[in-house]
Amino acid sequence: MANGGGNMKESTYMERCGICEEKKERGIHLYTMFICCECEYNMIHTEPREEKYQYYLDKLKNINQPTLFS
Question: pTM, whole model, 2 decimals?
């Protein structure tokens, strides 16, 4: 069956990461927060003694903030 000569393009849904605040296509949802794959990987591989650890903790404190839908 022909599809009109063009390739069917997958529609991509982008969400804003709650950590890096960039729009990304792939990631996880943790309660009300979307976390992109890159930030998830970085958080998992950050040791508590590292400076970035506190940054991630501060960002994750926003997880209980209600999501605003417009």
Answer: 0.72
